[in-house]
Amino acid sequence: MTTIATPRAPEDPGAPPAASAAPERTAPQRPRRGRLAAGRRRTALIWALLLAGPNIALLLVFVYRPLVESLYLSTLQWNLGSPTARFVGLGNYVEWFTAPTTGRIVTTTVVFTVATVGGAMVLGLGLALLLDKKLRGRGIARTVAFAPYVLGGFAVGILWLFMFDPRYGLIQELLGWVGLDSPDWYTSRPWPLVMVIVVYLWKNLGYVALIYLAGLQAVPQDLKDAAAIDGASAARTLRSVVLPLLTPTTFFLLVTMLLSSLQSFDTIKAMTQGGPLGSTTTLMYSIYVESFVNGRAGYASAVATVLFLVLLAVTAVQLRFVQQKVHYA
Amino acid sequence: MTAATLLRPATPATAPARRRRPRPQVGSYVTMILATIVLGAPLLWMALASLKAPDELYTLPLQWFPAQPDLDNYAQAAGAIPLGRLLVNSIGLTIVGAGLKVALGLCCAYALVFLDFPFRKLVFGLVIATLMIPPQITIIPNYTLVASLGWLNTYQGILVPGLASAFGTFLFRQHFLTLPRSVLEAAELDGAGHWRKLWRFVVPMSTPTLAAVALVSVVTEWNDYLWPFLVVDDPSKMTLPVGLTLLQNTDGMTNWGVLLAATVVVTLPILLVFLVLQRRLVAGLTAGAVTG
Questions:
Q1: How far does Cα A22 stand from its chain's mean position?
Q2: Which of A57, A192, B206, B248 has the fewest CB atoms within 10 Å, i.e. is most exposed?
Q3: Sign of the CA dihedral A185, A186, A191, A192?
Q4: Taking CA atoms, what residue in A is nearest to B192?
Q5: What ipTM does this complex have?
Q6: What pTM value is reported for the model?
Q7: How many CB pairs (< 8 A) connect A and B?
Q8: Residues annotated as region Disordered (chain A) (predicted)?
Q9: How many domains would you assign to chain A?
């Protein structure tokens, strides 16, 4: 590569203009340095292409191209695999907004998202506060709590489907201990949705707790001590000192959990396939159903665009907030 | 519901009546143990159930421990779907996929930090923006592209569309920015080229980040479901999670023992990776989270 460092072309476009317009005196030195710099720059460019090129090319082909294409597809009436497509403009969007199922899908998505994100945040914070105490065996508890997060959503779904089995599942047995009958988890509303939410909470609780733990450990001890000296109770210290300091952590978790919740697919696929009667069909799941079950790729692209806009809005809020208030270390 | 029972029941135990001096630690211990049981029980229950004979699975009241633990369910699962082949596919695709992802991210981040080239900021922006684009919107166009390439039911069809590394590139870049410039400048004076600087200096100084990114990539590749599920319907090319779908669909009535045995095969490897390399994996999965 060193050969490229001494380029033959005297008028390199990348060379600083000052080099050519240099006064006579410094002429013997200046052009050489300029040429050397231009050569280095060209070497750097070649290396950049070699090193970053493959990654960027993959991103362009498999992320940015489909992003644009999806917007185009959303204006077509087109079935997956069909050779013909018809331009319908915003027709797919109009259809989505007026479809009788849309209201139910949006409601399901909102209920699922609020319950999973809210539940995981509250329970996760509680768990983090508990595991932040100097208890023996808290390392084991942390490991057990976090383990579900590394498991695949589909396998987790299967495992819990067995747990919820109305006749031979562990859940019905536990409910029996306290004298309750197991509801029909698989079939009668609203239990299928409740079931999926419980599983999602189980899987993500440890993650939230872990991030909160990291946040808690960054809270300066002297602040807590000062609050204690002022006679603040543990609850008061939590509310007035710890929680405000955890705001960045809370916000980070809120956004990441929101994004992952809105995109969840495999657990629902394993447990309910969006049913019964669409009672567990979220926005994300309906994209899969419309494109790969019903084959309506154009319409599904329109739904995907709607979801994309929601996710984009969530991210935009995050970025705004990050710039204004949150200090990342 | 299960989750709601996590923390509440132990509260009364905070102040045991017997003692005059309150022992708040007792309540904490009870809560912690309860939480650990609730969170850990499903995994234990799955492992035990996979070793039970059918008549044991379907007897009431339920038995925790199998009377005669055997691997019969595993043998049956292997008979219904090519379990060994799926395992090999999953391991292979995970290693190759995660390896390439790390390599691509590493090289890309090196260029972004240590090379001066035009539009560097724009390129970085392109990488970062990717993190905000949900994979769902890319699915249909990518599916049609992969299908038109004749890549359905192929390993490259599963692998290639997900290879580009945005997360890895981002983490590596953040780490590289903290590396001492003087070391690299010294290396350059000694005549080290970029390739040498990358492998002999930058990589050895980045092992924790490298391990974290590698592990996170391994976990995501192993668990990936939707894309391989769409691209592959030939059992010999499937990954383990997709193979589970097959097992779930083989007959109308669920054979829980067999299905759970296969679920153990899917979850156990990644669980072991987690248990052995916990600290590094956690460092990776929580990277980007806030510290203050």
A1: 54
A2: A57
A3: positive
A4: A2
A5: 0.86
A6: 0.85
A7: 297
A8: 1-34
A9: 1
